[in-house]
Amino acid sequence: MRLDLPGEKKHVFDMVLPIRWGDMDAMGHVNNTVYFRYMETVRLEWMFNIGIAPDPQGQGPVILNAFCNFYKQLSYPGDVLVKLFVSEPKRSTFETWCTLELAAQPDAIHAAGGATVVWVDFPKQKSADLPPWLLGVVT
């Protein structure tokens, strides 16, 4: 299956993750919750690579919501190629999007999902403006 994500998305990061035996459920395919873990792993790796690290005494990212659409089963053994995209920066939020493909079959999307990231001032416990340097990354 080929999937076009809606709107303008900026491709920012790729990562290959192994499908582990323990990722599967009783039906013999990757459990639906693990897809969220794959997307989280890639999103966090990208954030650390660009210098985003949550600071409990300062500011950082928080996930506001997350979703995943499942198109084709993943199963062990194999490797998942997760492609990360960003879009739609607002005052304090931006969107992240992921596609999940078998590394051995690139461009055959098995799942796609995303999350809304909100920038938070942790001591104040409220949203804050995205830093200018981060706006430059997500636009």
Description of the molecule:
The protein has one domain (10-138): Hotdog Thioesterase (Thiol Ester Dehydrase, Chain A, Roll), CATH 3.10.129.10. The radius of gyration is 16 Å and the shape is elongated. The chain has helices at residues 32-49, 132-138; strands at residues 10-18, 59-70, 79-87, 93-102, 109-121, 126-127. It has two helices and six strands; from the N terminus they run βαβββββα. The two termini are 28 Å apart. The chain is 18% helix and 40% strand. It is α+β, with helices and mostly antiparallel strands. Strands 1, 2, 3, 4, 5 and 6 form a six-stranded antiparallel sheet that branches.
Main traits of this protein?
18% helix; Thiol Ester Dehydrase, Chain A; 139 residues; single chain; alpha+beta; elongated
Instruction: Give the biggest beta sheet.
Output: 6 strands, antiparallel
Structural class: alpha+beta
Q: Any idea what the CATH architecture is? A: Roll
The string of secondary-structure elements, in order, is EHEEEEEH
